[in-house]
Amino acid sequence: MPQTRLARISLLLAAIGLNAAFALPAAAFAQDKPAAQAEAPKDTVRPEIFKLVDPAQIKPLMDAKNYDEVKNRLAQAEALPNRTVYEDFVLNRMRISVASATNDTAALTTALEAVINSGKLQPTEQRDFVQALATQYYNNKDYAKAITWFNRYQTESGDTKVRPYIIRAHYFNNDFATAKTELLKDLDAHQKAGTTPKLEELQLLANSGAKTKDQATYLVALENLVRYYPNDDYWLDLLSRTQGKASYSNRFALDVLRLEKVAVSKMAAEEYTALAELALLAGQPIEAKQALDAGFSNGVLGTGAKAPEHKKLRAQADKQAADDTKNIGTGEASARKSKNGTGLINLGYAYVTLGQHDKGIALIQEGIAKGGLQNAEDAKLRLGYSYALAGRKDDAIKTLQTVTGTDGRGDLARYWIMWVNRPAGGNAQAQAAQ
Predict the structure, then answer these.
(1) Every domain of the chain and the residues it spans
(2) Most distant CA pair in the chain: distance in Å?
(3) Domain 47-171 class?
(4) What 3-state class would DSSP assign to 16?
(5) Neighbour tally for 156: CB within 10 Å
(6) Residue 341 in 3-state DSSP?
(7) Which residues, listed in sequence order, are joined to residue 45 by a DSSP beta bridge?
(8) What are the contacts of 211-214 at 24+ separation with CB within 8 A?
(9) Which residues, if any, are the signal sequence (predicted)?
């Protein structure tokens, strides 16, 4: 995950008027005045300091980038004894301008902090200076101080816009536990509000889970990445980790590959052949042929050392698929005579693979109703994703939401719902590849 850098400090300083020489108000100049004249303002700059930092002289020097002369004048002013708090405030504001112009980050942070702590800023100015200092520390990768000053900014301003940077600062400061806790809070808030979390928030949550070896948190982040920002890498990682769970049952291997085929733009060669082989074993040669055709079409199969194996498997699938397509209509009667609904479900899914979704779904429903199934919930899962493949979104979601199980079935049902609800245009490449 790339490190996010806040806006350049020069832009922030420009926004609060600190990129040019600080302009002293006329009332701040201590002048020799008649005794009868009104008392001088409380905050003043003595003439001997003013002549060194007179804006009328400093501005041309800054414009000409004669920063050494400006620094020299500031050093002379600093050498004068008994400076007041206000005089130091004036000098530090000018140091900010010079340090910003010369990219002197150490001098800049020192001057910013001194100005903030002077007590001479107006409340609105104070808030802006605190944000500028926090930003400077963040960009300098001094994350502990950045957190301190960003928190102060939030407290004093009531503005939470810097919260993402506080969380990132915790992460970059290797406080992954705090980052994870705060990111989970934000994700929960998004879910309750029905809003979409930002991509970087989810990536940061995934990384925080990985850094703390918290597999559950990593999977939460990954599922949401697939839900809101689906791509091949996220889908493949999610399906792989699902199969890696201790409770996962291998009887769902074909179901996983079916989902992968529609979810990603291109499968690996071994996954196309695994899908085909499992489909043939399951009595679904049409599905096997379609998987192999896709692999050959996109150039994954039919090349390299295993090309002969790919071609042999394809020839087998082609022959069985042709026979199945020719004789598929004759299977209904025998399936209905069976003592259980397994044959009807398998026949129904064959029709689904042929694109005859309504007929196929009706047969699957009939098979489930007939009963006698070894795993009735598995059949409900397959009915759910048959609806999904048919484009019947509402029916798919309604059915899949009833599917439970900790052996991979519940996960697959949830992932099919995520696929059905994918963002508009999401996985367009995958759909085109099928």
Answers:
(1) 47-171, 174-229
(2) 119
(3) mainly alpha
(4) coil
(5) 13
(6) coil
(7) 29
(8) 211/176, 212/176, 212/177, 212/180, 214/180
(9) 1-30
Residues 6+ apart with CB under 8 A from 95: 74, 107, 108, 110, 111
pTM, 2 dp: 0.83
Q: Locate 17 and state its tokens.
A: 């008027």
- Region class of 119: left (phi > 0), else alpha (psi between -120 and 50), else beta: left
End-to-end CA distance of the chain: 31
2: tokens are: 């790339």
Residue 296: how many CB atoms within 10 A of its CB? Answer: 16
C-alpha to C-alpha distance for 20 and 196, rounded to whole angstroms? 41
The 10 Å Cβ neighbour count of residue 11 is 12
Kind plus residue range of the DSSP H or E element containing 294: helix 285-297
State how far Cα 223 lies from the chain centre.
Answer: 11
State phi, psi for 426 to the nearest 5 degrees: -65, 135
The whole-angstrom separation of Cα 353 and Cα 295 is 17
- CA-nearest of 295, 290, 325, 323 to 309 is 295
Which pair of tokens denotes residue 96?
């900010």
Q: How far apart are CA 7 and CA 145, in angstroms?
A: 17
DSSP 3-state assignment of 26? helix
User: Could you tell me if 375 and 413 are in contact, meaning their C-beta atoms sit under 8 angstroms apart?
Assistant: no
Q: Provide the residue-wise pLDDT of the chain in tens; the chain has 434 residues.
A: 545 555 444 454 554 444 444 445 544 544 444 444 444 456 888 999 999 999 889 999 999 999 999 999 999 999 999 999 999 999 999 999 999 999 999 999 999 999 999 999 998 889 999 999 999 999 999 999 999 999 999 999 999 999 999 999 999 999 999 999 999 999 999 999 999 999 999 999 999 999 999 999 999 999 999 999 999 999 999 999 999 999 999 999 999 999 999 999 999 999 999 999 999 999 999 999 999 999 999 999 999 999 999 999 999 999 999 999 999 989 899 999 999 999 999 999 999 999 999 999 999 999 999 999 999 999 999 999 999 999 999 999 999 999 999 999 999 999 999 999 999 866 544 444 34
Residue 255, both tokens: 């179901």
Length of the chain: 434
> Which amino acid, residue 394?
D
